[in-house]
Structures are given as structure tokens and as C-alpha cells.
Design goal:
The complex is a heterodimer.
Chain A: H1 2-13, H2 18-21, H3 36-63, H4 66-74, H5 77-110, H6 116-123, H7 125-128, H8 131-142, H9 149-156, H10 164-189, H11 192-200, H12 205-234, H13 237-240, H14 253-262, H15 266-299
Helix pairs in contact in A: 1-10, 1-12, 3-15, 4-15, 5-10, 5-12, 8-10, 10-12, 11-12, 12-15, 14-15
Chain B: H1 3-24, E1 28-33, H2 38-56, E2 61-65, H3 69-77, E3 84-86, H4 90-98, E4 117-126, E5 146-147, H5 155-171, H6 176-188, H7 197-205, E6 212-216, H8 217-227, E7 232-235, E8 239-243, E9 247-249, H9 251-257, H10 260-271, H11 273-281, E10 285-286, H12 289-294, E11 303-305, H13 312-321, H14 326-332
Parallel strand pairs in B: 1-2, 1-3, 5-6, 8-11
Antiparallel strand pairs in B: 3-9, 4-6, 4-7, 4-8, 4-10
Classes of the chains: A mainly alpha, B alpha/beta.
Chain lengths: 300, 335
């Protein structure tokens, strides 16, 4: 998804890319990596071992419950509450990242300032840091006696750690790089002349943003949003320390799966995992379609 | 370096590693345990290795693995090569037995239900006990924050929960409805449910959340040692539960690895005077009567109920902690 957005944006931005964009005959096109049959075969085998077989095993495991058992395993009030927490807060976190990640990307692309490379590198930190370490650090910071938690609590009466807000913060933290790193290359390729042209034609700053910048960036932004969202839904390590883990209130779906495993209920855990997978897949599909639609509109 | 050379090197390294691993498996044990036993087994392993070498002339390494009791049991079921399991609850070893790794009657193979040391649940409060917490009924008062891990994920938390339940039963003349109300009231005072005993200890001692921590007795003493008796103190309730963390040899693994003899000797050493003494020093209650009297000053005299009062672990698990059990019911209505 990222690659598609990148190359598309990059190609659209450069005039000389016409030859590549011409329709490609499926088998005649000479390619650097030889053998379509071989590469496709490898791709399918590789994907099977890394993605398809594990996921199939998950679904197979939950199928031992039967349809009725599956349904009752994933529709208990507690599971539903956890779904609301996981999906709702991931959505909120992804939305936050879409807005502020865009800003970060904008600043990194359009301005020069001392220490810019450092800031640029900092963005990737949530990728590299073990999530449990992030979780412990965040909960220590935002705990009622922590550096940030204490003033927030005393000044605004705001409790962060061990509330849904704490979960949202952890999910925002781990999702940030996805938005910045998908939007950044698009912004980089967006010629400043287009903005200048818009300005010279009398467009206001907001109009320029709305009609020139946003349409070009939006598909990448949606991709970043979707990635950040998907990451948040499955996140365990960073959330578990800051969440408080109260059933029905601050309990996330991945914790519920761990709890079921803890009771040796493998099938139940697989059922919840399958349901989560299904919902995630559906949401990513919708976002993907949305993105395609936007891109076709923009191309027009 | 050419590809061929690299392959050769890799193959050589793999062979060397296999060789080391094979030599290693001779007198090496893996003890898979739960969180708060870490310090105890470090000391115990040293003593046993010394004794084993003196008796047989063979060096011994004992590796330790710690984590939530249930998670540890699951790792063993899924193939972690544990020669020995020393877990928080009989129920977790039962699960390993259900998977066919050791016989179902494992608990009768060693004295005292295969639990060489015991412990109990006590309260850890801030120095001076500002909320005046003396007993279980102080924990249900409004405004008192109680820290305990999640019974669904922590063996220790299940002991906590059952101890509270036993107290409530006793206080209400055996009325189950009232006991449920009491425990539900207590859980309402819990602001954070960590997934393991160590997590809760950190929440209470380092994040400074809550007024009282329900903890293993040995974990509470460790906290005093670590943070100083000027910050926390231990309150012993009028009634608590006799926690019996059991131990067992994993037959399937020791027979495959040829470590049965040393593994059995290891567990028997837990029952000897020396083993019991190390346990007592680490604040586990020893079983040996003469040591129990020797270390009597160390452990508060408290009325203890046993898991038998709940009909054993399988029954307790089924009734309270399984899906839709009492714990789930408490959290389902009105929070």
C-alpha cells in the first residue's frame, strides 16, 4: 500500500514518467528479475508461509467451536466492550496522528532548521523501541505521580494513566511514524510552484491548502491513517502497562485474547482473534476502496 | 567472502552449536517458575549445584524461567523444555498433566501435596498505615484503593481473591451471596488490574498508586527489603489463605533428556533441612516442623484456610475464574 502510494505520487509528479505508465503487456515486458512464473511462485509460497498459513491456522483453531460457539464466544458483553475500546481508541489515535503527523511531515519537508535530521530520526523511534519499553516509560510518565501525570492531575484534574486516555496516548505514540513516513515523500514531490501558481491566481491560503495540497496528499494520508489504525488495534505491549486493564472499561481485545489463553481456552482465544482479524480486514478494505476512489477523482 | 565460504562457515557454526547444545543437555536443568520465586531459586540453585557436584562429581547448571504462572504452564504445554515446574497453583500443573506431559496424580508424588514451602496473602500499606487498614473489611470502605493483579492472568491474584472470599464467608456465617457482594465491593476499590504479581508490586511501590497492596507474603517482605521499612509496612489480616505453590518433575521432558535422576534429586532437596532453610530465609514458610519453630518470629501467626475449603483448584477455578464465573459476573453488572 505504501509503495503504491509512493510510486504513484512520484510518477504523477514527474513529467518523464510517461513510458512507464503506458499499459504493460503481461508477459512480454522484459524485467530485471527474471521469470514471471518463478517470481510469482516464490511470492505465493513466501506469503503462504509467512501470512496465509498462520492466519488459516488461527481460523481453523476457532472453527473447532462451531458457528454457535464462535458467535457466543465473541459476543459476550465483555468482548464487545473490549472491541469498542480497541477499535474506538485506535480510531481516535489514528485520527490524531493523521492531523499532527501531517503537521510533522510538513515541517520536516518545507522548513530547514537546526537539528532537523535529529527530529527526522526521532519520528522513527516508536518503530524501533520495544513496545513494552514504550509502555513502561509512558505509564511512568503519565502515572499520578509521574512527571507529566502529576501536573496534569493537579492543574486540570486530568487522569491519564490507567484510563482510556492513557490507552489513546500509547496508541498515538506507536502509530505516529506511519502517517509521517507515508505523507513525507508525497509532500516532498509536491512542487512548490503549484502553490505559487495558486497564490498568483488569487487563491487564499486556505483555498490553496484545500484545493491544491490536500487532494494530492489525501490518498497517502488515508494510507497512513489506515496503517496507524491497524497497528493500534493489534497493539499489546505498550498499552498493557498504561491501560489499567479493567474489564469492560480499559480492557483491550489483545489482552482478552491473552486472558483466554491464560485459561487454556485456545479455541476461544482464536475465535476472538479471528473476529478481530475480520473486522480489521473489513475496515482496511473500506479505507482502501475510499483511497482508490479519491485517487481516481484526483487524477480526473 | 564468497557465498560458498559463507555457507560452509554457517554450517560449521551450526554444527558447533549443536555439539555444545548436546554436551550441555547432560547436567543442565530448566526450572520453569512464576514471578516472585526468582530470588529464592537463585540461592537454592547454587546450593543444590554444590551438593550435586560433591555427590556425583558432575557439574550442574540450572537455568530459571520466570513469568506469570499460567503463561509459564502454557509455554511448557507448547514445548518449552522444562525439566521441573515450580508454579503458583496446582491448577497450572494440572493443565500440563492434561496435556499428557506428566501423570494426573503428580500431586501425590511428593510430600505435602508436592508443595515443599507455603506462603500466604498479606497486606502491604504505606508507613504509618494512614488509612488505618487492619483487616479485610477495611478494604471495602469507600475511598480505599486496593491494588491486586487480575485473577484471570495471575495465580497470586487468585489466592488474593479466594482469601477475601474466605474471610467474607466466615464473617457472614457462610452466606455465599453476601460473600459475592463483599468481594464485588472490594474489586470496586481496585483502580488498576495488572496482569501479574510483579506488575502490581511496581504499581503500588513505584507508581505509588493505591492504599494497600494484596501480596504474597514473601513478595511483601522483598518490597520491605528493597524499599526500606521506612516506606512500607506489612499488615496481617485476621484470616488468610494457605497458598501452596506446588512443584513437579515433567516426566516427558526428563525421560527424553535423560535428566530424571537429577531433576528428582533437585525437588527432594527442597524438602531437606538445607533447602527449607533457604526457603525460610526468602520468606517462604517452611514445612519442616523444627524450622517452622526456628523461623516462627518471621511469620505472623494467622488463621489460614486451605484450597480444600473451595473443593480443590479445579472446582475453585470452574466456579470463580472461568468464563461466566463469579469474577466475570461481578464485572458484568454495574461498573
Amino acid at each position: 500500500m505504501v509503495a503504491a502510494a509512493d510510486s504513484d505520487g512520484a510518477l504523477a509528479g514527474k513529467g518523464g514518467a510517461v513510458t512507464v505508465r503506458a499499459p504493460i503487456p503481461l508477459f512480454r515486458k522484459p524485467s530485471v528479475i527474471p521469470g514471471f512464473g518463478l517470481t510469482l511462485g516464490f511470492t505465493l509460497t513466501y506469503l503462504s508461509f509467512i501470512v496465509l498459513i498462520p492466519l488459516a491456522a488461527l481460523i481453523l483453531r476457532s472453527s473447532s467451536l462451531g458457528w454457535g460457539g464462535f458467535w457466543s464466544a465473541v459476543t459476550t458483553p465483555r468482548v464487545i466492550a473490549a472491541f469498542e475500546v480497541s477499535f474506538g481508541l485506535s480510531f481516535a489515535a489514528a485520527l490524531t496522528n493523521a492531523v499532527f503527523g501531517f503537521l510533522v511531515a510538513w515541517v520536516l519537508v518545507r522548513y530547514d532548521f537546526p537539528g532537523k535530521r535529529l527530529v527526522d530520526a526521532l519520528v522513527d523511534l516508536p518503530f524501533a523501541l520495544p513496545t513494552a519499553v514504550a509502555g513502561i516509560a509512558l505509564s511512568a510518565l503519565y502515572a499520578p505521580n509521574g512527571w507529566l501525570g502529576k501536573p496534569l492531575n493537579e492543574l486540570f484534574g486530568l487522569k491519564v494513566a490507567f484510563t482510556p486516555l492513557g490507552i489513546a496516548i500509547a496508541l498515538t505514540f506507536i502509530g505516529l511514524p506511519f502517517v509521517v513516513r507515508t505523507v513525507q515523500p508525497i509532500l516532498q514531490d509536491l512542487p512548490a510552484e503549484e502553490e505559487e501558481a495558486a497564490a498568483s491566481l488569487g487563491a487564499s491560503r486556505f483555498q490553496t491548502f484545500r484545493s491544491v495540497i490536500l487532494p494530492a496528499v489525501l490518498p497517502a494520508l488515508v494510507t497512513g491513517f489506515a496503517l496507524s489504525f491497524a497497528r493500534g488495534v493489534g497493539e499489546y505491549g505498550s498499552v498493557i502497562f498504561i491501560a489499567g486493564n479493567m474489564p469492560g472499561l480499559t480492557e483491550i481485545v489483545p489482552l482478552l485474547i491473552v486472558i483466554k489463553l491464560e485459561q487454556y481456552d485456545y479455541a476461544g482465544a482464536a475465535a476472538v482473534g479471528t473476529a478481530m482479524l475480520g473486522v480489521s480486514f473489513l475496515m482496511l478494505l473500506i479505507l482502501n476502496l475510499l483511497q482508490q476512489w479519491m485517487r481516481s477523482r484526483h487524477a480526473r | 567472502m564468497s557465498l560458498r565460504r559463507l555457507t560452509l562457515l554457517a554450517a560449521g557454526l551450526t554444527l558447533a552449536w549443536l555439539g555444545v547444545a548436546a554436551a550441555d543437555s547432560k547436567d543442565a536443568l530448566l526450572n520453569v517458575s512464576y514471578d516472585p520465586t526468582r530470588e529464592f531459586y537463585v540461592e537454592f540453585n547454587k546450593a543444590f549445584a554444590k551438593k550435586w557436584e560433591a555427590e556425583t562429581g558432575r557439574a550442574l547448571t540450572v537455568r530459571q524461567s520466570h513469568g506469570g504462572s499460567g503463561k509459564q504452564a502454557r509455554s511448557v504445554i507448547d514445548g518449552l523444555d522444562a525439566d521441573i515446574v515450580t508454579l503458583a497453583l496446582g491448577y497450572d500443573i494440572d493443565a500440563i498433566a492434561d496435556a499428557g506431559l506428566l501423570p494426573k496424580d503428580w500431586q501425590s508424588r511428593l510430600p505435602n501435596n508436592s508443595a515443599p514451602y507455603t506462603s500466604t496473602i498479606v497486606f502491604l500499606v504505606k508507613k504509618g498505615n494512614p488509612k488505618g487498614i487492619k483487616d479485610w473489611n477495611d478494604l471495602v470502605k469507600p475511598g480505599v484503593q486496593v491494588i491486586t493483579p487480575n485473577p484471570k492472568t495471575s495465580g497470586g491474584a487468585r489466592w488474593n481473591y479466594l482469601a477475601a472470599w474466605a474471610y467474607a464467608l466466615q464473617a457472614n456465617g457462610g452466606d455465599e451471596t453476601k460473600a459475592k457482594e463483599f468481594v464485588s465491593q472490594l474489586l470496586k476499590n481496585v483502580p488498576v488490574l495488572d496482569s501479574g504479581a510483579r506488575g502490581s508490586t511496581v504499581t503500588f511501590t513505584q507508581r505509588e498508586i493505591g492504599d494497600v497492596l494484596l501480596a504474597w507474603e514473601n513478595e511483601a517482605y522483598l518490597s520491605l527489603q528493597e524499599f526500606g521499612a521506612d516506606k512500607f509496612e506489612i499488615v496481617v489480616p485476621s484470616l488468610s489463605i494457605l497458598a501452596e505453590p506446588p512443584v513437579a518433575v515433567v516426566d516427558k521432558v526428563v525421560d527424553r533428556k535423560g535428566t530424571r535422576k537429577v531433576a528428582e534429586a533437585y525437588l527432594q532437596f527442597l524438602y531437606t533441612r538445607e533447602g527449607q532453610e533457604i526457603a525460610a530465609k526468602n520468606y517462604y514458610r517452611p514445612r519442616l516442623p523444627e524450622l517452622a519453630t526456628q523461623y516462627a518470629g518471621r511469620f505472623a501467626d494467622v488463621k489460614l484456610v486451605t484450597i480444600d475449603q473451595f473443593g480443590g483448584w479445579r472446582a475453585a477455578q470452574e466456579k470463580h475464574f472461568s468464563d461466566g464465573g463469579v469474577f466475570d459476573q461481578i464485572f458484568q453488572k454495574g461498573r
